[in-house]
Design a protein that fits this description.
Serine Threonine Protein Phosphatase 5, Tetratricopeptide repeat; 422 residues; elongated; alpha/beta; 3 domains; Metallo-beta-lactamase, Chain A; binds zinc ion; 43% helix; 7-stranded mixed β-sheet; 13 strands; 6-stranded mixed β-sheet; 16% strand
Length: 422
């Protein structure tokens, strides 16, 4: 379906100096004795044992054949056990590509919460296709088929589920599998002490952790932090992340990467909770006032998720859905509100023009509010469509995270079609 991964990645990318770290593609890299890592967008680790391979993660359905081909340059052992670090479509949906012709069905291990995730994807396949179209910068029609199929299809299901921790031995090699909520509720990390290798799944991705994602279900940055500290305490010799390249032969660096990321998440959580404790102000006031941690480290740049969105997820977990603004408790239909604002302003075109003026001054947050109202008040107006689309594109140009860049780009595509976000 995707012939050219490089082109696919280019369309998915945010921007920023460190994006290449997150989007590292390559392999097979020998990370330890009889252990190889390869990645096409998401990473897979193969541990060869005398009984067969232990495979940690399996890529997307589309890219798995390429990852398998890379790992198969090094080992022809059948897959004995596959461990899905979590049920996202870029980790749990590619196992078939790694199986040898005629080999026995491997054992497949996942956390207890994983089957419910797969069922949810099937029940909300169109919803998820729309969300992902926006996350990757387009309209749902432009990606329909591919995006829908990704969520409607079922992966090879786990046959072995666990709750907090599972220890296995394959071919004399021991593996610890630990549950840790973070990016998902069904997340695991894997430690192979014999090979000194840690596989954190998406608990480490060479970027600000994806614990804020604006369109996805609840995430748990404060629990991810605990998992990262537990991994750091093991002093791994090799790190094979969910996204980005592997790190080998530098335990101090690996420990620092894991620990710094934990500290970053702890800072976001502590500061957000402190703001909530201060009289529980409206959500937007917390989001715009909390001091976001920043780092110069290559693995803590907001190239995929946006630190501000992590604040949102802390608020969501510890709070309710109400934003704290009286009007948003029982809101008017948006089109009605937008028409009222436009009428007061002298019309939707006037609103859009003012939005463009603010945009030209670099006040993108304010400009985007007015742009929203202008388009919602006059979605058929070609001048408004054009101006609003340009404002969203300017918003995208100022952002560093893939999420923000692409959601604004997607909004621009919808604006040009005269459809406010739908
Ligand atoms: Zn992933």
């Amino acid at each position: 379906m995707v012939d050219n991964p490089a082109a696919k990645f280019a369309s998915m990318r945010g921007k920023g100096p460190q994006e290449a770290k997150f989007f590292w593609t390559g392999g097979p890299v020998e990370v330890a004795e009889r252990t190889w890592f390869a990645s096409q967008f998401s990473g897979c680790t193969a541990f060869e044992t005398d009984e067969g391979l232990v495979l940690v993660d399996t890529g997307t359905r589309q890219f798995a054949p390429m990852i398998a081909a890379m790992l198969r340059q090094k080992t022809q052992a059948p897959v004995h056990t596959a461990i899905y670090t979590h049920g996202h479509i870029d980790h749990a949906y590619g196992l078939e590509a790694f199986l040898l012709p005629g080999q026995a069905r491997p054992r497949v291990i996942g956390h207890h919460a994983m089957p419910a995730r797969f069922a949810r994807y099937q029940a909300t396949a169109r919803h998820n296709a729309a969300l992902n179209a926006r996350q990757f910068g387009g309209t749902v029609e432009a990606q329909e088929g591919e995006a829908f199929q990704a969520f409607a299809a079922q992966p090879i299901a786990p046959d072995t589920l666990y709750d907090e921790r599972l220890d296995i031995v394959v071919g004399g090699v021991a593996f610890e599998i630990h549950h840790c909520r973070g990016e998902t509720d069904d997340h695991s990390w894997v430690w192979c002490a014999d090979r000194g290798t840690i596989c954190p799944g998406d608990l480490f991705i060479w970027a600000v952790p994806n614990d804020g994602n604006p369109q996805k279900v609840q995430r748990y940055p404060w629990e991810r932090a605990k998992g990262l500290r537990a991994m750091a305490a093991l002093s791994p010799r090799a790190l094979c992340p969910g996204h980005g390249g592997p790190v080998t032969g530098d335990t101090a660096l690996i420990v620092r990467m894991l620990s710094e990321t934990a500290g970053f998440l702890e800072a976001v959580t502590t500061r957000t909770l402190a703001a909530m404790e201060n009289g529980s102000p409206p959500h937007v006031d917390i989001v715009t006032e909390v001091a976001l941690p920043k780092s110069d480290s290559a693995w803590l740049q907001p190239v995929y998720d946006d630190t501000e969105f992590l604040v949102r997820n802390v608020i969501r977990h510890f709070g309710g859905w109400w934003s704290g603004r009286p009007s948003e408790l029982k809101p008017a239909p948006r089109a009605m509100l937008a028409c009222e604002i436009a009428a007061l302003s002298g019309g939707a075109e006037r609103l859009a023009t003012r939005a463009a003026e603010l945009g030209a001054q670099g006040q993108m947050r304010l400009a985007a509010h007015l742009a929203d109202y202008a388009l919602e008040a006059a979605p058929e107006n070609a001048t408004v469509q054009q101006q609003v689309a340009e404002i969203y594109e300017r918003c995208a140009a100022q952002e560093t995270s893939l999420m923000s860049v692409n959601i604004f780009r997607s909004a621009a595509a919808y604006a040009r079609a005269g459809r406010p976000y739908r």
